[in-house]
Amino acid sequence: MNYRTLPLLLLTLLCTSVRAQKEDTKTENVIIITMDGLRWQELFGGAVDSMVMNPDLTSDADRIKASYIADDQEERRASLMPFFWETIATQGQVFGNRWLGSQVNCTNRYWFSYPGYNEILTGYTDGAINSNAKNWNPNKTVLEWLHEKPEFQGRVAAFGSWDVFDWIVNEQRSGIPVNSGYNKAEGDQLTDKEHYLNKLQDQTALLWGSVRQDFLTHNYMMEYLKREHPKVVYISYGETDDFAHDGAYHRYLDAAHATDGMWRELWTFLQNDPVYAGKTSLIITTDHGRGESPMTEWKSHGTRIKGADAIWMAVLGPDTPAKGVITQGQLYQTQIAKTAAALLGYDYVNEKEEVGAVVPGVIATKK
Ligand SMILES: [Zn+2]
Question: What CATH number does the domain containing 261 carry?
């Protein structure tokens, strides 16, 4: 063998093996989206009367009632999250409507954020992830697994309203840029809008010390998408959980409604951008549920709150048949990571643990 052809041969072998691992899907970009602690009850049922009308919960009941209450359940949920019901639920697939027989559950036994996000992003449960403290995640996420591939090197990014995402995604080990909490957009290529967002973030009254308002997180992501066109993005919206902990049901509803509008903006942008149009899939889910019984428990979650492991999930994109609301089956939070990679044509495995299976039926070419 001529030594000059050796590198070429190696390159050819490498490319062949990469191609051999990759299945044919239309999806070239994936965005994993989470809305922290939004209950399946509001997603599928809309605002709950008794909670809206409780004077202890809201000083804004008339407006909330006019905005989100309707006799018909479909109308009610569509008024809360119009984009979700007009577009995601008609063009994609939605899981977790327990009233109809579709269930999605956490497999971790903690039912709060870090264990949930770890489960979503790694595809398995790690019992040692049992706190929300800023500990560097010892586990490799599907984001990091993809980022290690030449195709995705420098093309993965994460955004979070909660400031623990730097640790969950393990920014220092993975090398994935994470803009979370009150982080600013950084670099010498910033757009005018990114500079402006940095200014607005400084001028906004802090609602919570560790969670910024979602419009900041969302717009940082939007600007980054336009500027860098990453192929794999994770974004976590956080207001729903914090308003719920505050006991502010009206703000929890308003946050869900506002975030739904941001998803509309994102999807409209993706469908009109030549890099993303027709080649981008969304997976949307939540880290945990909240209480239902007794209803006062809705503010909280965690192992002692019955039903807080009940979550939901949705998939929208060019590989996903438009089956709408799924009415049967049991899915788990562990299945999201492998599904995200499978949409891109990759079979995600984790060296530490077996990961949950691809959600059946969300990829047309996969039997
Ligand atoms: Zn919480």
Answer: 3.40.720.10
Q: How many Å lie between the centroid of ligand 1 and the Cα of residue 14?
A: 45
Tokens of 320: 């996903």
Structure token pair of residue 163: 């400031």
pLDDT reported for residue 20: 45
Tell me if the bond preceding 177 is cis, omega within 30° of 0. Answer: no
CA of 247 to the centre of ligand 1 (A): 12
232 domain residue, yes or no: yes
Ligand 1 centre from 132 Cα, in Å?
10
Name the residues around ion ligand 1, CB cutoff 5 A: 241
Q: Is-contact 81 288, C-beta < 8 A?
A: no
Using the mean position of ligand 1's atoms as its centre, give its distance from the Cα of residue 364 in Å. Answer: 35
Q: How far apart are CA 55 and CA 254, in angstroms?
A: 17
- What digits encode the pLDDT tens for the residues 158-189? 999 999 999 999 999 999 999 999 999 999 99
Length of the chain: 367
Cα 244 to middle of ligand 1, angstroms: 8
User: How many angstroms does the Cα of residue 353 sit away from the middle of ligand 1?
Assistant: 26
What would the two tokens of residue 265 be?
Answer: 């903006």
Is 76 contained in some domain?
no
Ligand 1 centre distance from Cα of residue 301 (Å)? 7
Nearest CA-CA partner of 80 in 105, 37, 43: 43
Residue 155 belongs to a domain: yes
| Helix ranges (DSSP H) in 113-235 | 113-122, 142-147, 165-168, 171-174, 192-203, 214-228
Pairing of strands 93-95, 313-316: antiparallel
Total structural domains within the chain = 1
How confident is the model over 283-309, as pLDDT tens digits? 999 999 998 877 778 899 999 999 999
Residue 31 lies in a domain: yes
CA of 128 to the centre of ligand 1 (A): 19
pTM for this prediction:
0.93
Domain range for 331 = 26-40+81-343
